[in-house]
Amino acid sequence: MSRPVRPDWELIPLEVVGPLWFGTRLAEVAAALPDLTALRRFQADPTSRRTLGVEFASGRAEPAVRAYFVDDRLSCVAADAAHGPQVTPWGTS
Question: With a threshold of 0.90, does the pTM exceed it?
């Protein structure tokens, strides 16, 4: 069985992961991921309502990317190791 090609994303700490810039709002993150749809929103921190998590996937597949927002601003990105993009720091391989 062949696996779909996974995109390569560059990580620049505290700035950007692939097309996702830290500090952007949820609508901007969704627009930066045109091939993915938001599957589910969840309260990411049980002690704080300020932290929202959103899972993005291709269709109804397993989540490829999880984005976390504090006060409606992107603060963390987690790419799924099996289904998400391949992330490398500063473009190194």
Answer: no
